[in-house]
């Protein structure tokens, strides 16, 4: 079984057409703000990370097979970029998919041109970061070739998934729901993933934010506070056990608690586009920081479970990031289903620290702007 990897794409070792766009990105991840807890996985992410130039592969006479629509070319090679942008993507391939692809009497419907936006994880973070950001590549391909691929999405999409596609200009007629079995595709369009492990392309996030905001009306029925606390009362885990104590210190500072499940996707964008600071338990709701239009303060509240993804994302977008974590253990996968108790004293210290850093940066920027306007280049 051969896998066509990203490395082979860049080395020119494949026969399929490859279109490259934009450029490589160098992202510097600094330490979180003082006052943050010293979480090893966070600290291990610091340093410079390089994201490769994004691309689109056009594969003729391809197949999409199995529950997550894995791509195979005419020779039976697996197209890794239909699964993940990481070298270890093969671990996500179900054995049943390999068996189904090998059936000699394999019969399936055929599509002229298509791109799969199915994913091994259909949650909110993965939909925005691993699916919607790839639409930039699809639209680049369409501009270069004049071909508009049909989008293949998971069956029974959530309302926020359908709403996000509408805001990006895609109607129901532009999509088909995946049958969990297989299709043949004359031209399979495969845009590269815009993240590598926990490092997400800020350029891709900015593209997605701009596209969504440009199609968003000003109509909303909710009150928008720039100081946001994300509450997770309906989640199976990572809800804040002492939330009343947390809000007792946040509410006097102007924070308002929001439950993401109670908002439309459009209102989530509106809310975060005007945000100044977000305090939240570690979870998918923090993906919405990509919609912020100003230099945001992000405070990530960990329990025993978490990843550095929002730390790296906040840093890549130029935001202020701080975190607190009690009993953090990355090997404890069941930790995602447990509640979180926040150390209130530590939270108060971290809030003060981050406001101080933000205000200091603003003062420096104001002085530099004033000097620039007066033509004084002494600083």
UniProtKB/TrEMBL annotation:
Pfam families: Glyco_transf_61. Residues 124-295 form the Glycosyltransferase 61 catalytic domain. GO terms for molecular function: glycosyltransferase activity. Transmembrane segments: none annotated. Keywords: Glycoprotein, Glycosyltransferase, Transferase. InterPro entries: Glyco_transf_61_cat (IPR049625), Glycosyltransferase_61 (IPR007657). This is Glycosyltransferase 61 catalytic domain-containing protein. It comes from Chroococcidiopsis cubana SAG 39.79. The lineage of its organism: Bacteria, Bacillati, Cyanobacteriota, Cyanophyceae, Chroococcidiopsidales.
């Amino acid at each position: 079984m051969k896998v066509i990897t990203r490395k082979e794409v860049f080395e020119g070792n494949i026969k399929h057409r490859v279109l490259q766009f934009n450029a490589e990105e160098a992202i510097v991840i600094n330490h979180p703000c003082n006052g943050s807890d010293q979480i090893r996985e966070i600290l291990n992410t610091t340093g410079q990370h390089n994201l490769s130039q994004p691309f689109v592969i056009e594969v003729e006479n391809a197949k999409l097979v199995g529950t997550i629509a894995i791509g195979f070319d005419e020779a039976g090679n697996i197209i890794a970029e239909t699964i993940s942008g990481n070298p270890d993507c093969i671990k996500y391939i179900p054995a049943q998919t390999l068996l189904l692809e090998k059936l000699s009497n394999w019969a399936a419907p055929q599509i002229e041109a298509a791109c799969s936006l199915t994913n091994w994880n259909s949650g909110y973070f993965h939909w925005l970061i691993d699916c919607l950001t790839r639409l930039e590549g699809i639209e680049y391909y369409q501009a270069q070739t004049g071909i508009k691929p049909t989008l293949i999405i998971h069956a029974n999409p959530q309302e926020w998934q359908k709403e996000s596609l509408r805001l990006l200009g895609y109607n129901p007629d532009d999509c088909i729901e995946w049958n969990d079995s297989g299709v043949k595709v004359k031209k399979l369009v495969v845009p590269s993933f815009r993240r590598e492990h926990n490092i997400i392309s800020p350029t891709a996030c900015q593209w997605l934010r701009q596209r969504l905001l440009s199609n968003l009306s000003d109509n909303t029925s909710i009150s928008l506070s720039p100081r946001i606390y994300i509450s997770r009362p309906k989640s199976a885990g990572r809800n804040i056990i002492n939330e009343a104590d947390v809000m007792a210190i946040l509410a006097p500072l102007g924070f308002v608690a929001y439950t993401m499940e109670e908002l439309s996707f459009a209102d989530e964008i509106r809310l975060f586009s005007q945000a100044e600071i977000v305090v939240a338990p570690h979870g998918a709701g923090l993906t919405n920081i990509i919609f912020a239009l100003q230099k945001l303060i992000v405070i990530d509240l960990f329990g025993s479970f978490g990843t550095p993804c929002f730390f790296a994302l906040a840093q890549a977008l130029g935001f202020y990031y701080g975190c607190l974590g009690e009993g953090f253990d990355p090997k404890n996968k069941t930790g995602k289903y447990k509640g979180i108790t926040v150390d209130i004293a530590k939270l108060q210290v971290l809030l003060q620290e981050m406001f101080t850093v933000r205000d200091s940066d603003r003062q420096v920027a104001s002085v530099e702007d004033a000097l620039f306007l007066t033509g004084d280049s002494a600083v």
